Amino acid sequence: MTAMIEIDGLDVTFRVKGHEVQAVKGARFTVGEGESYGLVGESGSGKSTILRAICGLAPVTGGTIRIEGRPLGPRRDKAFASKVQMVFQDPYASLHPRHTLDRILSEPLAIHGIGEHDRRVVAALESVGLPASFRFRYPHQLSGGQRQRVAIARALMLEPEILLLDEPTSALDASVQAEVLNLLWDLREERGLTYLMVSHDLAVVDHMCDRMAVMEAGRIVETLERPDLLAGRFRHPYTRKLFEASLAAGG
Question: Are 212 and 229 within 8 A, CB to CB?
């Protein structure tokens, strides 16, 4: 299996009010082609920071990030954007409120000099289960689930191979959450996508991911395959704590 994402000894350190805060400490894992890999942990564990480091939105202070075997430098160029895209937690915040869906979805095409805007925008909406008639609506005219579908469509406009999913359903109602997760599952199957998904919810990771890393206070404390999670085979007490919290919440 080809390694699409390799995280090797990753450190991310922020300076906050004159103090250094190490948000990620020596993270190490590999995501294979077509795999869905989960990063799970409580808020502040460092999982979303890893996604931001891959995108160049957080400072890499140690270690290496490789995409298809190539180390990433300090800048992310158009070639990176064509291969890797991110879907954020809050679809309302990630979509420009004064732009129509047509403009939101056309923008990546314009930046990369790709034509056939009309056809591609309609196809993108249909691929996420939205009618072409939505094309000239604004984000505030959509439900939360519909907005997240648009955010997913935008991430797919450049036909990337890798999607970074940062709590993509946590802002949605439970019934809508299931619909969006099923959409993401179907898109991965249809397009052969590779997913790196962040969640605080073990039930979501269990539904979506083949393997997962459990993060606590910036460190990966355990890696699991899906059968281990289903059987409750945990080595680290923090993983058991997360599992029990998920059960208590009905996950």
Answer: yes
Residue for token digits 């020596």? 26
CB atoms within 10 A of CB 93: 12
164-167-169 Cα angle (round to 5): 115
Q: Which two tokens stand for residue 120?
A: 């591609």
CATH code at position 73? 3.40.50.300
Domain count, the chain: 1
Q: Please give the full DSSP string across 100-162, using - where no structure is assigned.
A: -HHHHHHHHHHHTT---HHHHHHHHHHHTT--GGGGG--GGGS-HHHHHHHHHHHHHTT--SE
Under 8 Å between Cβ of 184 and 195: yes
Per-residue pLDDT of the chain (251 residues; tens, 9 = 90+): 789 999 999 999 998 888 899 999 999 999 999 999 999 998 889 999 999 999 999 999 999 999 999 999 888 888 999 999 999 888 778 889 899 999 999 999 999 999 889 999 999 999 999 999 999 999 999 999 999 999 999 999 999 999 999 999 887 888 899 999 999 999 999 999 999 999 988 888 888 999 999 999 999 999 999 888 888 888 899 988 888 877 766 54
Range of the domain at 39: 3-248
Of 208, 209, 168, 214, nearest to 41 (Cα)?
Answer: 214
Question: Which runs of E-coded beta strand occur in the chain?
Answer: 3-16, 19-32, 36-40, 60-67, 70-71, 84-87, 162-166, 194-199, 211-216, 219-225
pTM score, two decimals? 0.93
